[in-house]
Design brief:
It contains ten helices and no strands. The protein is an all-alpha fold. It has one domain. Helix 4 packs antiparallel against helix 5, helix 5 runs antiparallel to helix 7 and helix 5 packs across helix 9. Its EC number is 2.3.1.23, 2.3.1.n6. It is a multi-pass membrane protein. One of its GO terms (cellular component) is membrane. This is Lysophospholipid acyltransferase 5. GO terms for molecular function: 1-acylglycerophosphocholine O-acyltransferase activity; lysophospholipid acyltransferase activity.
């Protein structure tokens, strides 16, 4: 603070902010309801650097999943060459991917829980809390399970721990991934609405053609 390096501008009330070097948003991290919240609240400066100088630089690949894999590989190499680092970050990729895919699947059910007009609805509040609790439990279990290999580093130790729990985390993750491929994809609300609008437009155009045809026939009869 004395050097001024942590100065980060002013807030909305004109107060100086000295969080320029803050690397953890502790409240968001402790009460995170998704892995995306974890990534956005822990080791934030490093994550921002990797996002800016690695992930975004890979845009030419035209594949976000591949860019994410390379970025995670870079992070693993950043930590060292132990097997556990690569094992941990590879599982993290699948965890985040599963979260993204299934969040989209249940979006039509969860999105209304966070709409402003439902903020004070007791029933909606109850289910919103349930959704947040499930999210917190899910990300906590996924994070703690994956970080085992990061901490133990060596395969001989990692194998013992995961064998003791029958690789349950991996089974759940890859089962959900397989299930996502098997189940039919849900159409986005915008796509459904667009098709409905297009369908209505076609019906209107069809009705107009019929009306125009009737008018022409009537005109011919009169003539």
């Amino acid at each position: 603070m004395l050097s001024g390096i942590s100065f980060n501008g002013y807030d909305d009330h004109g107060n100086a902010e000295w969080n320029g070097l803050a690397n953890v948003d502790r409240w968001r991290f402790e009460f995170a309801t998704s892995l995306a919240d974890i990534v956005g609240s822990f080791n934030t400066n490093t994550n921002l650097w990797v996002k800016t100088y690695v992930f975004k630089r890979l845009a030419f690949l035209g594949n976000k999943e591949l860019s994410s894999i390379i970025s995670l590989l870079f992070l693993a190499l950043w930590h060292g060459v132990y097997f556990g680092y690569y094992f941990c970050f590879s599982l993290e990729f699948f965890d985040v991917e599963i979260e993204r895919r299934w969040s989209k699947r249940v979006e039509s059910y969860t999105k209304p829980l966070y709409l402003p007009q439902n903020k004070h609805n007791p029933s909606i509040q109850f289910w919103r809390r349930i959704h947040q609790l499930v999210g917190w439990l899910g990300q906590t279990c996924a994070l703690h399970y994956a970080v085992v290999s990061f901490v133990l580093m060596k395969w001989e130790y990692i194998r013992i721990v995961y064998n003791s729990v029958h690789w349950i985390g991996h089974i759940i993750v890859f089962s959900l991934l397989l299930l996502d491929f098997i189940l039919p994809k849900h159409k986005k609300t915008s796509e459904v609405n667009s098709k409905m609008i297009n369908g209505d437009s076609k019906m209107v155009n069809g009705d107009n053609k019929m009306i125009n045809g009737d008018i022409r026939n009537s005109s011919k009869k009169i003539n």
